[in-house]
Write a structure and sequence with these properties.
Blueprint lengths: L4 E2 L12 E2 L9 E5 L3 E6 L7 E5 H12 L5 H4 L3
């Protein structure tokens, strides 16, 4: 199920190549790993946190929303 926590997808967590934003520096950040069929997401500073998996179509839809500013907190904060 996409967007749901997963326990294991083939290889172990330590075998995956996790990517974090260079803008995150020393702060907590989202880490992303790519498999043949899925995009895996986790909290970079919490190694025991559950992984969440997405299809590539779901991931691309999310990135499009980010690029369009749809996830900018200022757009959704009530004053």
């Amino acid at each position: 199920m996409s967007g749901e926590p997963v326990l294991s997808i083939g290889e172990s967590d330590s075998e995956r190549q996790w990517i974090t934003s260079s803008a995150s520096a020393d702060v907590s950040c989202v880490a992303v790993a790519f498999t043949h069929q899925r995009v895996l997401v986790k909290h970079s500073k919490r190694p025991d946190s559950p992984l969440i998996e997405y299809t590539y179509a779901e991931w691309e839809a999310f990135l499009t929303g980010v690029r369009l500013g749809e996830f900018d907190p200022a757009r959704h904060m009530r004053t």
